[in-house]
Amino acid sequence: MPLLEERGGHWLLVCADCHLQRFVVYDSFAHPRDLYQESLIHHAIMSIALSMLRTSCFGSALTWDVVRPNCPQQGNGYDHGVFVMAFMDLISIRPNAWRFSHHNVRQFRDKCLVSLPRGRIANFPHTLTGFSPLQCLLQ
Question: Is the pLDDT of residue 138 over 50?
Answer without folding.
Answer: no
